[in-house]
Amino acid sequence: MKVNTNSNTYIIIYSVVMVVIVAVLLALASLGLKSRQDENILNEKQTQIVKALGENPDEVAYNDIITNAVLLDASGAVVSEDTKQVFAALNDLKGSFAAGQYPLFVATSGVVVPMYGAGLWGPIWGYIALDTDMNTVKGIVLDHSGETPGLGAEITTMKHQRLYVGKTVYEGDEIVGITLKKGGADKSNPHEVDAITGGTKTSDGVSAMIKECLNYYKPYLSAVREADAADPAVEGQGESNTLND
Amino acid sequence: MASKSLKNLTAPLSGNNPVIVQILGICSALAVTVQLKPAIVMGLSVMVVTAFSNLVMSLLRNGVPSRIRIIVQLVVIAALVILVDQVLKAFVYDVSKQLSVYVGLIITNCIVMGRVEAFALQNKPWDSFLDGIGNGLGYAAILVIIAFFRELLGSGSLFGVRLIPESWYIAEGGVYSNCGLMLFPPMALIIVGCIIWAHRSFNKDLQEK
């Protein structure tokens, strides 16, 4: 049987069959692999939160260090303490920020604030951990989806992320964040770190992201700071308990 | 027969190399060669895609309507790339993150479609599969050579491991400085040019009169 492979009917049937087969194949692959992929993504988020606090994720598990994962509203009040809901909000951080939902991770040694912003080629995101004074940076984790390897993508290296430790984000009552300074940071300035060579746009994106995202959490962070300032004796949770007794 | 099949595998490594002889896939060779690790993973991913797109298209070659063959090729290649991407995300999440957007860009790599169009549509599945592996390897080899020089001279490291001691740098009181130009795409093009130059002076039959 000789089929004319150039007739219109053949071409149309061929295309339809081909598209259906490919669509089914890809849908099956996507469905079959989704649970594994989601697990990887959740695992990575928890690892990054632990890393932001300056701990080694191989030694310290997420559940051991994070005492509470909460969802805040724009006024800094806690609206949910359901971990599932917090991670759901974290999965679409951009949408959550727009909807006025702000996930926050509380540890005994500080808080971890998730961040989302724009780099040169695509989105950048990360976590910044603040000490119990809500001002000193304990650590930072930065990540990206499409920055150039060796240039903008250098924000993910330890070498770059180490620079942030010990810097402060408050200037008086305002959150100024941390600026990535092109041409080298002034060592005495507590709000500056070196920018990435050849990655100026990505560096600017990181500066803007830190400032913008921390300001979303300002009502909460400032409230904690004021509570501390009003009662300087209260530093750790352990001490506050003994004072209450 | 066996030696002829083998030739499909070995020819693209040097004499018919896709990058430095056929001058295909230059764009991605510029983009992912700043460091060695992404270059190697990219080379392997392209190899998997060229091998299997060649195999699938060779199996389909007698039924494909020639008027829409380019569309059919693109659908097959795109489906394979998405599959590779999904599998990487599920099983080697770290690597998938390293490659980021470049996995998607394999679809546009001229080598993949070039080999399907020029080889797989006229040849048997096994030969086509070997041709795909060979061209993928030839591409990977050039990427690794470029990435070697760019990472060594541009960052002073290989596979992210520092090779030039910190104390040699001007900032630390030494006399050495990384070549910042190496981090930019034009240097990859210049290195490709140097490789082609060296390659042709050893292979006189490739020189144009």
Q: How many discrete domains of chain B?
A: 1
Largest interface: A-B, 31 and 35 residues
Q: Would you identify the regions of chain B where 5 or more consecutive residues have pLDDT less than 50?
A: none
Number of helices of chain A: 8
Molecular shape of chain A? elongated
Overall tally of domains of chain A: 1
Helix content of chain B: 55-70%
Largest sheet of chain B: 2 strands, antiparallel
> Order of helices and strands of chain A, N to C?
HHEEHHEEEEHEEEEHHH
Uncertain segments of chain A: 234-245
Counting DSSP E segments of at least 2 residues, the number of strands of chain B comes to 2
Class from helix and strand fractions of chain B:
mainly alpha
> H/E series of chain B, N to C?
HHHHHHHHEEH
- Please state the oligomeric state of the protein chains shown: heterodimer
Percentage of residues assigned to helices of chain A: 40-55%
Count of strand segments of chain A: 10
Mean pLDDT of chain A, rounded to whole units? 85
Number of helices of chain B: 9
Query: What percent strand of chain A?
Result: 15-25%
